[in-house]
């Protein structure tokens, strides 16, 4: 395996998840970010709190400290804040993604076999990255689903719109050389 290619692809996949989240969130009025479909579901705000909390915990001092930081209070990430501060939430969201991108961007192929811990459980760096590559897109899908529900009349598809596959494929194939 080429470790540099893997790291570049992992970074690309995380950036795609970030873009999907941001494009979905942009379609929902901020005052609806705290809406829950039912008492046991998450709101957009709680998903943002959870993802950013996870990123800040996992990727801060990634190679040298346990990925579950003692100052993280995971359970509170799933509670509605007493006062909703969209700017503070956006700031935390930005800090979480920046922490992920900065840390992942600093890793080298030689780091992939190193061992890190998450909740005192050992993982290779490669395993720890894959763990988050499974976790973040899971919540990205939740954000997209919920955003689509909260903005049904104005929703713009984030991928190929229903009924648009033929036109999309034709446009993609137009400039490609024949094999």
Description:
This protein starts with a helix and ends in a 5-residue tail after the last helix. It has a two-stranded antiparallel ribbon with strand order 1-2. It is mainly alpha-helical and 179 residues long. Helix 1 (3-25) runs antiparallel to helix 3, helix 1 (3-25) runs parallel beside helix 4 (125-150) and helix 2 packs parallel to helix 3 (86-106). The chain has helices at 3-25, 44-59, 86-106, 125-150, 165-174, and strands at residues 115-118, 121-124. The chain has one domain (3-174): Four Helix Bundle (Hemerythrin (Met), subunit A) (Up-down Bundle). 54% of the residues lie in helices and 4% in strands.
In short:
This protein is mainly α and 179 residues long. Helix content is 54%, strand content 4%.
Features:
4% strand; 2 strands; 179 residues; mainly alpha; Four Helix Bundle (Hemerythrin (Met), subunit A)
- Structure class: mainly alpha
Principal-axes geometry comes out as flat
The CATH superfamily bears the name dinb family like domain
Major sheet summary line: 2 strands, antiparallel
Residue windows where pLDDT falls under 50 for at least 5 positions? none
Q: Can you write the helix and strand succession as a string? A: HHHEEHH
Give me the Rg, rounded. Answer: 18 Å
Tally the structural domains: 1
Proportion of β residues?
Answer: under 5%
| Helical residue percent band | 40-55%
CATH class, named: Mainly Alpha
CATH architecture: Up-down Bundle
CATH topology: Four Helix Bundle (Hemerythrin (Met), subunit A)
Order of strands, main sheet, comes to 1-2
Mean pLDDT: 94
In whole angstroms, how far apart are the ends? Answer: 27 Å
């Amino acid at each position: 395996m080429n470790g540099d290619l893997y790291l570049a692809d992992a970074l690309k996949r995380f950036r795609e998840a970030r873009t999907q989240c941001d494009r979905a969130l942009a379609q929902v009025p901020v005052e609806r970010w705290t809406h829950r479909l039912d008492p046991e579901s998450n709101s957009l705000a709680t998903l943002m709190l959870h993802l950013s909390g996870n990123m800040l915990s996992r990727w801060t001092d990634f190679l040298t400290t346990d990925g579950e930081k003692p100052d993280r209070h995971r359970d509170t990430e799933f509670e509605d804040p007493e006062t909703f501060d969209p700017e503070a939430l956006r700031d935390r969201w930005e800090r979480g993604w920046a922490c992920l991108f900065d840390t992942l961007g600093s890793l080298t192929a030689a780091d992939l076999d190193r061992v890190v811990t998450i909740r005192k459980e050992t993982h290779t760096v490669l395993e720890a990255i894959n763990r988050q590559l499974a976790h973040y897109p899971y919540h990205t899908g939740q954000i997209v689903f919920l955003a689509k529900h909260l903005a049904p009349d104005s929703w713009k598809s984030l991928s190929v719109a229903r009924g648009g596959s033929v036109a999309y494929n034709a446009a993609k194939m137009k400039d490609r050389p024949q094999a």
